[in-house]
Each structure stands twice: as C-alpha cells, then as structure tokens.
Specification:
Layout (H helix, E strand, L loop, with lengths): L1 E6 L2 H10 L7 E6 L9 E2 L7 H10 L4 E4 L2 H5 L2 H6 L8 E5 L1 H8 L1 H10 L7 E5 L3 H10 L4 E5 L8 E4 L2 H13 L9 E5 L5 E9 L4 E3 L4 E2 L2 E3 L3 E4 L4 E4 L6 H21 L4 E12 L2 E8 L6 H5 L7 H6 L17 E9 L22 E4 L2 E4 L2 E4 L3 E9 L2 H12 L7 E2 L9
Parallel strand pairs: 1-2, 1-4, 2-3, 4-5
Antiparallel strand pairs: 5-16, 6-9, 7-8, 7-9, 10-11, 10-16, 12-15, 13-14, 15-18, 16-17, 18-22, 18-23, 19-22, 20-21
The chain binds adenosine monophosphate and glycine (GLY).
The site of glycine has 6 residues, from loops.
Length: 423
C-alpha cells in the first residue's frame, strides 16, 4: 500500500515511525513532514489545506490511503473531498467526515451532541452577540471559576478560565462583540467548572465498531507542578494509573459507546481516531472536550505501546470491519518529554544547533520543530522534539528518558523535569 501522511509535528513523526513498521506498506510520503518523518518516508512540500494539490499528488503517486494528523484539514472536509472526488473516492481517508469533525470544530455542536446522547459533561449554555445580556445573567448564576469557550478552532487558545465575575463578563463581551478570537468566538459556550484530574482516552473507529487505545495524561502547562501558561503539551505518560478497569468501564459505557452510537444513528461517517478529553471528577468520568484526531504529545507515548500493525487496522475502517482486527497493547509504561525552545509559549529564538542525538540509544526521539540545514539539525519551533522511553514501570521509563535528555543539547533548551512524577 502507498500511504500519504499529513502533518509535521511530533505526532506525525510517531505515526510515520509506526506506519513504516507495517508489513502492508510499499511507500510512505509525508506532507509537509519534518526531518524526523524523513527517516521513515519521503517528505513532500504541499499546502495541507489545498485539497486539489493533494489530490494531484495522490493520483500521480498512486496513493490509496491518507492518514490525517492535525484537525484543521479534517474540519475543512478532507474526508468528504476525497469521498466525493470523481476519480479518487476509493482512497481511504483515516479521519472523520466534515460533519463528524464538528465534534472538535464546534464546541456548541459537541455540547449539544453530548446533551442529546446523555454523555456526562459540564452543564452549559451557548451565547451570541444577540443575547450577550443573557450571557451576563448566566455567568451571575454560576459559581467561579467561570469557563468560557470560543465555539470554533482557536489554535488551542480559545478556552478561558477566570476567577472574577467582572473579568468573565468583560471577556465574554470581547469575544462576542469585539472579535477577540475572530470568527471562532462569535459563539461562546459558557460551562460549569469541573474539578478533577484530566486524562486522554482514544478510540479508533470505523463508525460502527471501535478499539480503545492506551490511555495517556498530557502535561499542558509550561512550568513544573502545572504552573504558568498553557502550551501545546510538554510531555505525556501512558498508561494513566487512575484510569483502572472500573474507571475505563464507565468511560466505555457512558462515553465511548454512546458517542459512536450517536454518530451512527445520525449517519455521520467517522473512520479515524476519536480523542476524549476527560475529567475524573471523584471517580466519575466527564467529557471536557472531543478532538477528531490523536493528541500531541499523547501519540508519542501511546503508539510505542501498540504492538499491532496499525496499517492493518486502518485498512479495516472503510468497510466497517474493524471488529476483525486486533489491537494489542504492551504492558510497558511509556513517557515522552518535550524539549522546547526557551521562551515558548511566548517568544523564542530559532535556528539553534541541536547536538547529541547520535548518543541516544535507549529511547526514541520524535522531531516536532526541527529543520535540517546541510549537516546540521536546527531548532525551528517552540516544541522541538519529544524524547520517548518505554520501561517496566513509569519510574523506569522516566529515568531512561531523563538520562537520555542529559545527552541532548541546544542553547536555551527547556523541559519540564516533573513529567510523570505525580502519578
Ligand atoms: P478544551 O479546549 O475544551 O479542552 O479546554 C482546554 C483546557 O481547559 C482543558 O484541557 C481543561 O484543562 C480546561 N477546561 C476546559 N473546560 C473545563 C471545565 N468545564 N472545567 C474545568 N476545566 C476545564
Ligand atoms: N495534547 C492535547 C491535544 O492534542 O489537543
């Protein structure tokens, strides 16, 4: 099989690594990819939102499967584009349809879907410019902290959690009347604050059947002990010890099954990964958010724990035959630690020379923001790379990962030293 993988981060390097191990693969292309994905296939420069350009490439290279890493092409309808293409409807797109991707692309859609299918989540109401005043009244009826969410995609920045009522009202006005998050904020979901510990659960689905992947915990804040601003994720650990069998049974019965059944009953096609961002509220799982793709950096800690051929599983999605496949999970723990450019998520310098990768023997380094220039590997993003190690326990995995990190260097390299220490 000839596969095209879309994306350029650590998640896509992990996918490229895993896909390239498949017995079913004849060629792997990655667009746009990064120096890490280039170790496992051929990087191709394309605009990942230009579906016509991608279709030309698919035709030229006889691609029969497209694996989509990030949400934006999915929310823009890449699945439907190929399904409706006169010559390329046979291409298997691993991802949800445009309608299903609204689970991530519209918070209001996700909340009303959960309400309709009685999936546990925070209570909420949605407001627009037209009913701003009712929004103020709703805020007054809640206890702090106040949770405000821009309806659309806002590059992970569209959620505000505020302690002060006046500030919450001000932010609501800014979003609805002053374009604070552009179009994404023209509708705002205000919801009840849930107190608990978060974890990420992932399922691969063909829209009828599903397989549950290993759980993971993502460390979102820049600073140790979860301090400072939010980032794209500074590390992840799998499995999550509190997500034990009893908890996961609740997750499956109350959240995963009704989600898949809800999509099916509405004839909404979904042939890919569903990401359930969950809050464990005193042992009861509640949905914080859906994403229509795998998490980053969770993927980097989840895929190394899957021993099955992932392309074999992908191949079963189109014909709703996922039940015929097996998803085997190895018992080892996995940890991934993000090495970031100093200053991230604010301003940071690029083009720092990265040293020491040749000394890495005991872990896998997934590239995120790197660039190759002649013989040198340079930093090119905020999150630069993810150092990933497996171990017989979380402690074992993290001591391996941190030992390896000590061998890597670039100027102003920053990483959290407490990934995995709290669980
Ligand atoms: P989201 O993009 O919806 O996942 O929100 C981003 C982050 O905000 C989540 O990962 C949580 O840490 C936090 N968050 C969102 N909604 C809530 C909520 N209702 N209660 C508590 N924390 C929340
Ligand atoms: N790690 C969070 C996300 O991928 O959205």
């Amino acid at each position: 099989m000839r596969i095209l993988l879309i994306g350029s981060g650590g998640r896509e390097h992990a996918f490229a690594w895993k896909i390239s191990q498949s017995k079913l693969i004849d060629a792997l292309f990655i667009t746009p990819g990064n120096p890490g994905t280039a170790q496992h296939g051929v990087n191709v420069k394309m605009d990942i939102h230009d579906f016509d350009q991608i279709a030309d490439f698919v035709q030229k290279e006889k691609i029969s499967m497209i694996v989509v890493g990030p949400e934006e092409p999915l929310v823009r309808g890449i699945y439907d584009y190929f399904k409706n293409h006169p010559d390329l409807s046979f291409v298997k797109v691993i991802g949800p349809s445009k309608e299903a991707a609204r689970l991530e692309g519209s918070k209001d859609f996700a909340k009303s879907f959960m309400q309709k299918y009685k999936i546990p989540t925070a209570s909420y109401q949605t407001f627009t410019k037209e009913n701003l005043y009712q929004g103020f009244q709703f805020l007054e009826s809640l206890k702090p902290p106040y949770v405000l969410k821009a309806d659309g995609l806002a590059a992970g920045k569209g959620v505000l959690i505020l302690d002060n009522l006046d500030e919450a009202k001000r932010e609501l006005s800014l979003m609805l009347s002053e374009n604070r998050f552009g179009e994404a904020g023209h509708k705002v979901v205000i919801e009840e604050f849930m107190k608990g510990v978060e974890c990420s659960v992932f399922a691969l689905t063909d829209g009828v059947h599903y397989k549950i992947l290993p759980t993971a915990k993502d460390y979102k804040r820049i600073g140790e002990a979860d301090s400072g601003p939010n980032t794209g994720g500074m590390g992840a650990v799998s499995p999550v010890p509190f997500a034990d069998d009893a908890f996961m049974q609740k997750v499956e019965e109350r959240i995963i099954q009704p989600t898949i059944e809800g999509l099916k009953s509405e004839n909404i096609a979904y042939k890919g990964f569903v990401y359930f961002g969950l809050m464990n509220v005193q042992g009861e799982p509640k949905v914080v958010e859906y994403n229509c793709r795998m998490g980053d950096p969770e993927t980097e800690a989840v895929l190394p724990r899957i021993s099955s051929d992932i392309v074999a599983l992908f191949s079963l999605l189109e014909t709703n035959e996922l039940y015929q496949g097996t998803l085997d999970i190895i018992p080892d723990a996995c940890i991934t630690v993000v090495l970031a450019s100093g200053g991230y998520p604010g301003q940071f310098e690029k083009n720092r020379v990265i040293h020491g990768l040749e000394n890495i023997t005991n872990s896998k380094v997934f590239h995120a923001g790197t660039t190759q220039e002649d013989n040198r590997l340079l930093t090119s993003g905020g999150r630069v790379m993810c150092v990933t190690a497996l171990g017989s326990s979380i402690q074992d995995a993290l001591s391996k990962a941190y030992n390896e990190i000590s061998l890597i260097h670039f100027d102003d390299m920053y990483y959290r030293r407490d990934i995995g220490f709290d669980i």
